[in-house]
Amino acid sequence: MAKILSYEEKDTWIHRLSGVTKLIFFLLWCFTSMLTYDTRVLLFMVFFSLIVFKISKTQWKQVGAVFKLVMVFLVFNVLAIYIFSPDQGTAIYGTKTVLFHIAGRYDMTLEQLFYEFNVVIKYFTIIPAVFMFLVTTNPSEFAASMNKIGISYNVGYAISIALRYIPDVQGEFTKIRNAQEARGIEMSGKASLMSRIKNTSSIIFPLIFSSMDRIDVVSNAMELRGYGKHKKRTWYMERALKRNDYLVIGFTVLFMVAALAVTFADGSRFYNPFV
Asked: Is the pTM of this model over 0.85?
């Protein structure tokens, strides 16, 4: 089973950036994406995110499984928006161009399609950035980065441990699944979807119990070493900011300012091509 969302050391300029730089880029990038509904800005962000994702040499096996789950969630989200607010696009853009009638109050309008298209591409501005950040940042350096921008080192260390043990949990899942298959419980593509869901769900409780045992071991080891005694701590993996770090931070801040200026130029965060 391929390890997903796990850090891999590679020789790229993104890997060589400080964790602080990548964290600042990630936060400002997500902040900009959440605020803007300007299609021009969002399309540029998607294009740029894909370029950065490619440069980071992130392999599909690292993110493919999570990406599929995100796509399922995205489909349900888009459907839910239309089911509960079929006229949201009309309310936002002020016009109504009916393409065809479905039933009752449900009309498929050009404005609704355009609104939901913007919702979709907002996801695609963030997803590559999330994946790139997780697989190019050492968990220990990530904890140091969070502490450096003012977040409690307890929070940073907890997240660091969680990221560090993702591969171990995946390995435990594989062992339990193999043991179940050895007992004749089919979990491969040969079984029906409902059968696979049912059989896979039986792994959850053993996985939870093994993870709790692991948590107990780690927490005891940290307590024996006096973790949390002091309000501050030093970091072995902390990396000093260099020229490329300042350039990336500067570019991110300037882009955010420019993107929001374009977005709110007409007083609204929605780009309206229907006027």
From this structure: no
